[in-house]
Specification:
The complex is a heterodimer of chains A (351) and B (209).
Chain A: H1 9-23, H2 28-35, H3 39-48, H4 52-58, H5 64-86, H6 89-98, H7 100-115, H8 120-125, H9 135-142, H10 147-153, H11 160-173, H12 177-195, H13 202-227, H14 245-252, H15 257-265, H16 271-279, H17 286-307, H18 313-337, H19 342-348
Chain B: H1 10-82, E1 91-98, E2 101-108, H2 127-208
Antiparallel strand pairs in B: 1-2
Classes of the chains: A mainly alpha (351), B mainly alpha (209).
């Protein structure tokens, strides 16, 4: 159970260490500079930064752009594991809970790979052990023969009850989409619970998680509308924030985008999100909507971290900023490889 | 058929005339078939042009979406999302007849899927995965449609080619040779008739003298 124990010392310690790490992240102008570089220059530059160790380690197994991508993911995983290690007591538990989304990604990838009868090596290539399930645990789970055995090997994992409840249906229909949605819903329910249990900055964290849920729901809403999905979409929405799944379902059935934005604005209180929603009145693609909302979310997180310098917010800011550094570097490298124009790549960067 | 092999008899003449008539009928029918096939071919060609254009367009779009998806999600993210897809579209092959040419009719199960049917969860993925999946589903649909049209076109072309060869063989080889044989037999029979008449006249002249 996450509780506020040990006074302010752990918060000061972790916040300070992570603030130092955050200062080492690439500044936004560096991305702009990289957008004007050629692919070999970008690869060389990435190889000369703090990702050098992973690039050297993986140099024998991968090459070119794949090497860069895997090195970035490995670095992210290692960095997150280090954050988990350096966080004391309740903060460790909080960090592990926040990073559980990576566990969900890894577990689902293993389950899907096993369902498809893929080889261990192929599945392992796409795992990113950045959560509480580290590489050793994932290797053990990966060695299991089938989905049922994989689930059994995860009996001690916090999310096992959800897997246990949904696995048989998933195996029967050959799709783990419902399980995936349920796991994410459980993740947010757990985060809301932690925020209400008295961690320092918990009130703001509660608001932040609710904002994240709102952003996720709004993204899902726009995706559903973009896809023309008019059936009951309640199962795709997360409860616990501003809107109930029923309200979002009603919005999904509204005739035009402006009507939806008006309905959202009538209830949304976060100013940053209100501004982002106003921007969405133009005919933007679902992906552009997604990127805009992510940027809004990060800005909000950064503000909270400044208001509460010794709380859980600096941890969150570092975790997210690190993730988006990896995402941005990968986007620039992959975009250059696909010969996408710099402007197009720039549109998808989260700076 | 060499003329030396032709027997200059009346029954052979009748047979040859029958063969010529049959060949001429066959020639007319095959010519009509060839023309009909060419007309059908041009119809299919128009469809093929459209389907090939659509295929190329969808291929470019799919490639572009894959490039953007790799940019946003990374190839790891794209591969992980692709793990969700378990079903392959079922292809059913039937056949239909165009002027005696058996061409395939390809039917497939629904390739294009909705956001909720693709096997990945909606909460944990991004819209770029939807767009990429959708672009590739459209590409597969275009490939299936194109496969039917292109195969039909190829079979029609093969049939036109073989019909054309038959028409040409009848027009330039079989019918001229048979006509030549007929003329030869006629000529020989006339010759033989004249010889007979001359011989009879000689006999008659001798007997009267």
């Amino acid at each position: 159970m996450v509780q506020n124990s040990g006074g302010p010392a752990p918060y000061i310690y972790v916040s300070t260490r992570l603030r130092v790490r955050k200062a080492k992240l690439l500044p936004p102008e560096e991305y702009q500079r990289m957008l004007n570089m050629s692919l070999p220059e970008i690869i060389r530059l990435i190889g000369e930064t703090e990702y050098q160790k992973e690039v050297d380690e993986l140099g024998t197994s991968f090459e070119g752009i794949d090497l860069i991508e895997v090195a970035l993911s490995w670095n992210l995983a290692k960095e997150y594991q280090r954050v988990i290690e350096l966080a004391p007591g309740s903060l460790k538990e909080f960090t592990m809970a926040y990073l559980r989304r990576w566990d969900i990604y890894n577990v689902l990838t293993i389950l899907r790979g096993k369902m498809q009868g893929m080889k261990e090596g192929k599945i392992k290539e796409v795992l990113i052990p950045a959560g509480s399930l580290d590489r050793t645990i994932l290797d053990r789970v990966l060695a299991e023969e089938n989905c049922e055995r994989v689930a059994d090997a995860l009996k001690n994992w916090k999310m096992y009850p959800t897997i246990s409840a949904e696995l048989s249906e998933g195996c029967a229909i050959g799709s783990f989409a419902r399980l995936e949605n349920e796991l994410y819903k459980r993740l947010y329910a757990d985060l809301l619970q932690i925020a209400r249990r008295g961690v320092k900055g918990g009130n703001q964290f509660l608001k932040f998680v609710q904002l994240e849920i709102d952003v996720k729901n709004i993204k899902t809403l726009f995706r559903m509308r973009g896809d023309g999905y008019e059936e009951d979409a309640r199962e795709f929405f997360i409860s616990g924030a501003t809107f109930t799944p029923e309200e979002l379902q009603q919005m999904n059935q509204m005739a035009n985008r402006n009507e939806v934005i008006d309905a959202l604005l009538a209830r949304i209180k976060a100013k940053a999100l209100q501004v982002a929603l106003e921007d969405l009145r133009t005919e933007k693609s679902e992906q552009e909507v997604d990127t805009e909302l992510t940027k809004t979310q990060l800005d909000h997180m950064e503000q909270l971290s400044k208001i509460n310098p010794f709380s859980i917010h600096p941890i969150l800011v570092y975790l997210e900023k690190k993730k988006y550094e990896v995402v941005n570097l990968r986007a620039i490298a992959r975009g250059k490889e696909s010969r996408l124009p710099g402007e197009t790549i720039g549109k998808y960067l989260v700076i | 058929m060499a003329l030396k092999d032709v027997k200059p008899t009346r029954s052979e003449l009748i047979n040859t005339k029958k063969k010529i008539k049959l060949s001429q009928n066959g020639y007319k029918i095959l010519k009509m078939k060839r023309d009909g096939l060419i007309m059908e071919f041009f119809k299919v060609l128009e469809e093929a042009k459209d389907s090939r254009g659509a295929l190329l367009e969808r291929y470019s779009r799919a490639q572009e979406m894959m490039a953007i998806a790799n940019t946003i999600e990374g190839s790891i993210g794209v591969k992980a999302a692709a793990f969700s897809v378990r079903e392959n579209p079922d292809i059913t092959l039937k056949s239909k007849n165009i002027m005696g040419v058996v061409v395939p009719e390809i039917a497939s199960t629904q390739v294009k899927k909705g956001i909720a049917e693709r096997g990945y969860g909606v909460i944990g993925t991004t819209p770029i995965i939807d767009d990429t999946a959708s672009a590739f589903e459209e590409l597969v649909e275009a490939i299936i449609k194109s496969a039917e049209i292109e195969t039909t076109m190829k079979r029609l072309l093969d049939e036109i080619e073989s019909t054309k060869r038959r028409v040409n063989a009848l027009e330039f080889k079989v019918i001229p040779e048979l006509s030549e044989a007929r003329d030869f037999i006629k000529m020989r029979l006339d010759e033989m008739e004249r010889e007979e008449l001359f011989r009879l006249k000689k006999i008659k002249a001798r007997s009267t003298a």
